[in-house]
Amino acid sequence: MSLGIRSGSYGSLEKQLQQSNVVSPIQTTRKPSKMLKEKERSLNWVFKFAGRKKVGMLFLSLISAFVFVWVLYVGKGEDSQGGNNVRNISVNESMSLSSSPSMITMANIMGFQTSLVLPPPPPGYFMGYTLPPGHPCNSFTLPPPPADKKRTGPRPCPVCYLPVEEAIALMPKFPSPSPVLKNLTFVYEENLSRDGEFGGSDFGGYPTLKQRNDSFDIQESMSVHCGFVRGAKPGRNTGFDLDEDDLVAMEQCRGIVVASAIFGNFDEINEPSNISEYSRKTVCFLMFVDEITEEYLRSSGKMGINKKVGLWRVIVAHNIPYTDARRTGKIPKLLLHRMAPNARYSIWLDGKLELVVDPYQILERFLWRKNATFAISKHYKRFDVFTEAEANKVAGKYDNASIDFQIDFYKNEGLTPYTEAKLPLISDVPEGCVIVREHIPISNLFTCLWHNEVDRFTSRDQISFAVVRDKLMSRVDFHITMFLDCERRNFVVQKYHRDLLLKLAAPVSVALSPPPPPSSPPPPLPVLETLPEKSVISSIWRGSGRHRRPGSGGHRKVVVGNRDIEPN
To answer: Strand, helix or coil at 139?
Structure first.
């Protein structure tokens, strides 16, 4: 019986036999052995009494049973051996499993294919960890604040960080699970639609109220407005346009990103301190600026042609979509995942803050150890949205009519003042100047929807934070960790805005008045038996304002960098 070569899933029979160092029977001139003749007679006898179709079904059943047993019991051992036994394993959407050369030979003879399709393995997720028993951080508690009547404002408090090396070793290898939402895409509108317009902008689009409500209905796959609506790629003709080399550099950020921004030359760039060598090599430090700030950095000699100021890579944004610098700052603050699409984690700092703790230690303490995906500090004083809105009006942070309109809109949607009924939520008002988060679909959706509220209403993101958070939490198991403001002040130092620093650094010019003319000599004293000069001179000393003791009525000095004073 001659055996022809039939192509199978994994190559021809001839190639299989050559790889096994066996000479193909097609190439040899040696006569068949006696044993082979006996096998041919037995096969002919089976075909004579059973029929070819039944024999084929029998062989198919045997092969299927063998492959099934091989997958259950033998596959793992052969897979660990590597080598030639398993030649092709592909994972992702399906897994195809090769058989041994002998099985391929038999199957190819019968004309069958030995490709077994298995369901993909479940993806790996980070599910948190616990520190070992007896670890000092397990029993760490905050000490009572120092009783210093001179310092009544907010201040930092101790935080139990792990050493940098341990924090680096605990960085998760897999992402955290994203509840319900698995695939998030973003709206792209070449021609903006303004039908049913209710706030919005050319940068963020003009989503209708129905689209806004639908964006809170969490599905497995979603497409939402998330800024940059006029371009297929963020930073390219979308408003907030970025240089091509900066876009390429941000795409290469695949781990941790520390980001900040300065617009309108409003702040000085603060160089991070206490940063490990490993972080200097692996963390992307991105500082977003506008053209006005770029001009100042170049003219002052602080930035050279390499676009670096210390650890910061300066990224210049062109074609700024807003006139309000505070609203522009919300773009890198809330939409960082769109400009650094491959980053896994990010730490956002307002431009007035200086980072003084290593990024790995911050992420370990506030995300990984807590098994959290989004962390933000609560406001040090206010915890109610209505109180926050009134404070913004008093401080002139935004025009009162716009704040009132936003609050009334939220009240009609069901927003109520914060009470203990909201526990375990400890506050409705974040501090907002620091955000620590993981870039997974659900947290990216949260910041997209938060930015949409900033784009639609006022730029005061503390007012809209709780509304977006509560809407998402009512539909999906998504939690936001709010840590203490004193803990935030442990890893960032708050500085003054640049205009105030210039005022404090300017020399104080004091107008000196000419000395007064000498007074006429006093009349001669009467000659008495006692000498009253001492008492008279004492009365003159007490009555003269020019003889006041030095330091008895001066002003207190203002020290730059005092962390108790809250700059605007």
So the answer is: helix
Q: What is the C-alpha separation between 9 and 438, in angstroms, rounded?
A: 42
Give the lowest-confidence range in 120-129, 201-210, 391-400: 120-129
The answer to whether position 59 is within a domain reads: no
Tokens for 421, please give them.
């009924």
Contact 182, 441 (CB under 8 A): yes
Domain count, the chain: 1
Question: Alpha-carbon dihedral of residues 463, 468, 474, 477, nearest 10 degrees?
Answer: -120
H/E stretch holding 106 reads: helix 101-110
Residue 112, both tokens: 């069958």
558 found inside a domain = no
Question: How much is the pLDDT for 61?
Answer: 73
Nearest to 491 by CA among 271, 334, 272, 329: 272
Secondary-structure percent of the chain, ordered helix, strand, coil, rounded to 5: 35, 10, 50
Question: pLDDT tens for residues 512-521?
Answer: 455 555 555 5
pLDDT digits (tens, 9 = 90+) for 94-125: 333 333 444 444 444 445 444 445 566 667 89
Count helices and strands (H / E) in the chain: 20, 15
Q: Are strands 481-483 and 374-378 parallel, antiparallel or unpaired?
A: parallel
Q: What span, in angstroms and rounded, lies between the C-alpha atoms of 192 and 334?
A: 22
Within a domain: 113? no
Measure the N-to-C terminal CA separation of the chain; round to a whole number of Å.
94
Q: Please give the radius of gyration of the chain, using alpha carbons only, rounded to the nearest integer.
A: 37
Report how far apart, in Å, the C-alpha atoms of 267 and of each of 6, 320, 375, 561, 566 are.
74, 18, 25, 14, 15
In terms of phi and psi (left: phi > 0; alpha: psi -120 to 50; beta: otherwise), the region of 289 is: beta
Tell me whether residue 135 is in a domain. no
Beta carbons of 427 and 383 less than 8 angstroms apart: yes
Per the structure, the complete domain to which residue 281 belongs is given by 164-503
Q: Using alpha carbons only, give the angle 359, 361, 367 rounded to the nearest 5 degrees.
A: 90
Residue whose pair of structure tokens reads 């997974």 in the numeric block: 440
